[in-house]
Design brief:
Number of domains: 2
CATH class of the largest domain: Alpha Beta
Shape: elongated
Number of helices: 6
CATH superfamily of the largest domain: Response regulator
Strand content: 25-35%
Length: 224
Amino acid sequence: MKRHNRPESILIVDDNEFLVYGMKRFFRGDFGDVSVAATGHDAVTALRLRPYDVVTLDIGLPDIDGLELLAYIKHLYPESIVVVVSSRTDRKAKERAFTNGAFGFFEKPVDIIMLKKILTAPVPEKRYPIVFDDGVTGTTCYASDNSLCITSEACLEYGALLNITLSLPDSQSIQLKGRVVRTNDWIAGLPGSPDSAGMKQMFRVELVETPPLYQSLLGRRQHG
């Protein structure tokens, strides 16, 4: 898949029937082609037939090491976006996933809205630098009417209330206030961004205040 295009096909690899059912229904409006595989062997069979723009992958599959399957997918289709969706929380699994080419690592229960934003946002997504009131810096991954997804070297605590300064290219800045509502997901740096190497912890911030300039920024991005 060309990384500047919106993805059109997705393969959901997971043996949790309830989760697969929910994800399939949720993604149907954004992807023209939604396929599922309950086992690693089913996924391999599907992938031998054709590539998928996006693969969401549970690494705790009953028949195959999901991390080895991840490496196989990236070897077969280097341009496919592979996002791990897993109950594993150990850092070693995350590091191995990103070493094998994962674009993201989402812990279960998955924040499906955040996952959808990451997968369907225009790529390359514009990343704006941000500064918190204590001087700590970060970057945006996506922005919506009521939330921001950000990366930061700081370990932000769940429930923390943040004062955020978002810097724009024209030297303007936007003052935002929000609360951290998700802390346990990770993403690789986007190509061409300053943090394109390694894995970055992601935080979802629910915005409390959204000034007019912020709404104007969202409008420009949606139509630009």
